[in-house]
Write a structure and sequence with these properties.
seven-stranded antiparallel beta sheet, 3 domains, Rossmann fold, binds 2-deoxy-2-amino glucitol-6-phosphate, 25 strands, 21% strand, alpha/beta, Glutamine Phosphoribosylpyrophosphate, subunit 1, domain 1, single chain
């Protein structure tokens, strides 16, 4: 959740760290801090957004330092609880992502030994543990300290008078950036892309010694680990707003390209079995959280239709604690970040239960890629806005490709039928572009939602989860209470809540076999005086007769319609949030990657 950066080299460390923190701010933003070695450790940290820390930052010169943006998990946002933390004598400074589960017991012990604490955080115990174990070799002290910790961490620490950074990781992402006479450590590659695209990923249980000349990785056993570097193809520019007012809007407008990129190589996946060469499983379980869970629900419809295979969908946070039946489905885990704690735990649980696992993620080298048997990468590029948009659409594309792959391999789809489905998928970038070309219509239409306290989203069949996703997007960034419903469920309870103050967003597509039922449901809500904003096909003449406003999408095959309908829903959420003056890219209480349970 939080962002970590460490620098050692020839540049002014504070400049590098501030630049990196600006790029990391989307990961956590309730406080920020920095320590520069010069040769004392000079610390500055502040509650609030990074700008506040930067505004009050004095000039600190030095070539080694660490920085942090925080998303509070233990101890409320405050100056005291902001990272970095110093040991009792101001000799060691540390930043941390993750959660230390046994910190209370460790803190009590350390306090009894004379260590003085200044915060309510779990993190502070780590720096005191390192201090306790420090006999003149910081790397060894860090190794001894993390051996006592229960929980998860990515840490970076520096010490007075030394040019080295020591880092360690367990179940939290950490990447090393390699430069010439300078090196970096960060929680996310976007932090360091302005300086280098040569990286090495740190694995669980490893510790690293970073100097300007080299990075040395040590395995859990203390042995040196050889690892070749990788080149990241994202540019620093890719992670910028590119002229759009918000990352979210930029990322929505990147969707045609993201879908196109994710379709590259689809034929190899489908025809040559590049993914799932062996389809010897009788059922599929898809597991995910949040938006990725909604993609999983759409995937169930696609897989059951194209592959005629039974599919169940489960929330990762529920699956990991479920009793587990005697079954061996293919378990598909979806996580755009590849770092969601619940999804990673579910992946481990699925393996423990003896299931084959397939991960769908957008981040190369992310933790999930090491937890699953096979990986399908979406190619959405970096997504900075907290609200998932283009990564969601590429997750849908991945699931359609996998459904066609399994349908073809199980001979439910003939070669011609497989090509037919693939060509429908290949039409998606164009269809999405035509929705984006009419974004102004959406901007004008949302006025009926802006003042609302509650909004209902209704759909049927494969667009039922689409509407759940639409509702999630609205509540996430506009703070309006929004609920998605299967339209057939309205009369079983939710209808009681409808009146003229509760607008309803509904989807009814002429080609869909549930069209008539949706028209009836829309009439039902209109009869309760609820204003209706409908999403319908370009050729639909009946929908305007029951809805107050209609937003049009291209008449694609209903199976693939979630792709185009979702774009309208994302734009609705964006423009409502914009008109309500909300912080769109950094909604309150949320973080981009949820690395805690
Ligand atoms: C999406 O807009 C949300 N920010 C959130 O629901 C997210 O989808 C969820 O936390 C799962 O993230 P993941 O795909 O990175 O695992």
């Amino acid at each position: 959740m939080c962002g970590i950066i460490g620098y050692t080299g020839q540049r002014e460390a504070s400049e590098v760290i501030l630049e990196a923190l600006r790029r990391l701010e989307y990961r956590g933003y309730d406080s920020a801090g920095i320590v520069i070695m010069n040769p004392e450790l000079t610390l500055h940290k502040r509650k609030g957004e990074l700008a506040e820390m930067q505004r009050t930052l004095p000039q600190i010169n030095g070539h080694v330092g660490i920085g942090h943006t925080r998303w509070a998990t233990c101890g409320k946002p405050s100056n005291e609880n902001a990272h970095p933390f110093l040991d009792c004598h101001g000799r060691i400074a540390l930043v941390h992502n993750g959660i230390i589960e046994n910190y209370m017991a460790l803190k009590e012990k350390l306090q009894n030994e004379g260590h003085v604490f200044t915060s309510q955080t779990d993190t502070e115990v780590i720096v005191h543990l390192i201090e306790k174990h420090d006999k003149g070799d910081l790397h060894q002290a860090v190794r001894a300290a993390v051996a006592e910790i229960k929980g998860t961490y990515a840490i970076a620490c520096i010490e007075k008078g030394s040019g080295q950074i020591i880092a360690a990781r367990k179940e939290n992402p950490l990447v090393l950036g390699l430069g010439i006479d300078e090196n970096f450590v960060a929680s996310d590659v976007t932090a360091i892309l302005s300086y280098t695209n040569r990286v090495k990923y740190v694995m669980d249980g490893e510790t690293v010694v970073i100097t300007p000349e080299k990075v040395t990785i040590y395995g859990p056993d203390g042995e040196m680990v050889e690892r070749s570097s990788q080149t990241v193809t994202w540019s620093a520019e890719d992670a910028q707003k590119g002229g759009f007012p918000h990352f979210m809007l930029k990322e929505i407008f990147e969707e045609p390209q993201a879908i196109h990129n994710s379709l590259l190589g689809a034929l190899d996946v489908i025809e040559n079995g590049e993914i799932l060469p062996n389809v010897q499983f009788g059922s599929i379980k898809i597991i995910a959280c949040g938006t990725s869970y909604h993609a999983a629900m759409v995937g169930k419809y696609a897989l059951e239709e194209l592959a005629k295979i039974p599919v169940t969908v489960e929330l990762a946070s529920e699956y990991r604690y479920s009793p587990g039946a005697k079954e061996f489905p293919l378990v598909v885990l979806i996580s755009q970040s590849g770092e969601t704690a619940d999804t990673l735990a579910a992946a481990r649980e699925a393996k423990r239960r003896g299931c084959k696992t397939l991960g769908i993620t957008n981040v190369i080298g992310s933790t999930i890629t090491r937890e699953v048997d096979e990986v399908f990468y979406t190619r959405a590029g970096p997504e900075i806005g907290v609200a998932a948009t283009k990564t969601y659409l590429t997750q849908l594309i991945a699931l359609y490709i996998i459904a066609i792959r399994i349908g073809y391999a199980r001979r439910n789809l003939s070669h011609d039928a497989m090509w037919n489905e693939l060509s429908k998928l290949r039409a998606m970038p164009g269809a999405v572009q035509s929705v984006l070309d009419k974004a102004f219509d959406v901007e004008a239409a949302v006025d009926m939602l802006v003042p609302a306290r509650d909004v209902f989203y209704i759909g049927r069949n494969i667009n039922y989860p689409t509407m759940l996703e639409g509702a999630l997007k609205l509540k996430e960034i506009s703070y309006i209470h929004a609920e998605g419903f299967a339209a057939g469920e309205l009369k079983h309870g939710p209808l009681a809540l409808l009146d003229s103050t509760t607008p309803v967003v509904a989807v009814a597509l002429t080609k869909d076999h549930t069209y008539d039922k949706m028209m009836a449901n829309i009439s039902e809500v209109a009869a309760r005086d609820s204003p209706v904003l409908a999403i319908g096909c370009e050729d639909d003449k009946e929908l305007p007769q029951v809805a107050d406003l209609v937003l049009r999408v291209p008449c694609v095959d209903p199976l693939y319609s979630p792709v185009v309908v979702t774009v309208v829903l994302q734009l609705i959420a964006y423009y409502v949030a914009l008109k309500r003056g909300c912080s769109i890219d950094k909604p309150k209480n949320l973080a981009k990657s949820v690395t805690v349970e």
